[in-house]
């Protein structure tokens, strides 16, 4: 049994997609980040960055106590190794996947996230910041589009790199991007959207949070944090 501590964000979707694809037994524990549930001490005990997603593997391979893991990229890599799925063992193929997983973690996710923030949520419109992140998102779409030329999936075979990147492309309209400008990415996006496991993951998200909104109070929780 995998316990998934989750909310309906792109990073949350990555892990639910994997769990659906792998057919693992799992239970979702919704963490409403707009209400501050990510600061629950029990959650912080294994997710000290107070961010979702996180998991607890109730039956780790070493037979020991439940194993908690935070950071979506680390979770995907752990689950891939646990199940022997979606991450090759041969070094060349493995690092083809991992470099694109880390590309998403270090590039596409953070840059698209800043795009979301300044375009959608910032209390004042800052043209320079908006243009900066919309353009960088566009550049990254171009990188992914080029990689997908002649490939069905990012690293050739379907992998955790695809699961990590897809949820960050889903809100392309909010990111002020046009998929038709990126034909190889657009074809991949349609391919991903048609996967039954991806559809199941997003249906579960709708059941948990059917109408995502960020209120003024939620803004203070999500965007106003300090070390204190």
What does this protein structure show overall?
Helix 4 (91-121) runs antiparallel to helix 5 (127-147). The protein is of the alpha+beta class and 228 residues long. A four-stranded mixed sheet has the order 2-1-3-4, with helices on one face. The protein has helices at residues 10-22, 41-44, 72-83, 91-121, 127-147, 160-169, 183-193, 196-208, 216-223; strands at residues 2-6, 26-30, 54-57, 67-70. It has two domains: 2-85 and 200-223, 3-Layer(aba) Sandwich (Glutaredoxin), CATH 3.40.30; 91-194, Glutathione S-transferase Yfyf (Class Pi), Chain A, domain 2. The mean pLDDT is 94. The protein has nine helices and four strands, in the order E-H-E-H-E-E-H-H-H-H-H-H-H. 54% of the residues lie in helices and 8% in strands.
Number-wise, the strands total: 4
Shape: globular
Question: What is the topology, as strand order, of the major beta sheet?
Answer: 2-1-3-4
Largest sheet: 4 strands, mixed
Uncertain runs with pLDDT below 50, 5 residues or more? none
Helical residue percent?
Answer: 40-55%
Number of domains: 2
CATH topology of the largest domain: Glutaredoxin
Question: Structural class per helix/strand content?
Answer: alpha+beta
N-to-C span: 34 Å
Identify the CATH homologous superfamily of the largest domain: Glutaredoxin
- Strand coverage percent: 5-15%
Mean pLDDT: 94
């Amino acid at each position: 049994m995998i316990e998934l501590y989750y909310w309906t964000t792109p990073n949350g979707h990555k892990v639910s997609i994997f769990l659906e694809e792998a057919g693992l037994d799992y239970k979702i524990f919704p963490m409403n980040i707009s209400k501050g549930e990510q600061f629950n001490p029990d959650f912080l005990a294994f997710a000290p960055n107070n961010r979702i997603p996180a998991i607890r593997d109730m039956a780790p391979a070493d037979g020991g106590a439940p194993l908690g893991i935070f950071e979506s990229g680390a979770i995907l890599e752990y689950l891939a190794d646990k199940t022997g799925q979606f991450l090759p063992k041969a070094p060349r193929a493995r690092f083809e996947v991992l470099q694109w997983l880390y590309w998403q973690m270090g590039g596409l996710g953070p840059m698209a996230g800043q795009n979301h923030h300044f375009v959608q949520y910032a209390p004042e419109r800052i043209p320079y910041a908006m243009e900066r992140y919309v353009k960088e998102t566009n550049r990254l779409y171009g990188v992914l589009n080029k990689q997908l030329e002649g490939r069905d999936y990012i690293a050739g075979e379907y992998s955790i790199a695809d699961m990590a990147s897809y949820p960050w492309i889903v809100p392309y309209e909010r990111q002020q991007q046009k998929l038709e400008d990126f034909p190889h990415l657009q074809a991949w996006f349609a391919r991903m959207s048609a996967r039954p496991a991806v559809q199941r993951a997003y249906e579960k998200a709708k059941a948990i949070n059917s109408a995502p909104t960020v209120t003024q109070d939620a803004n203070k929780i999500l965007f106003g944090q300090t070390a204190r």
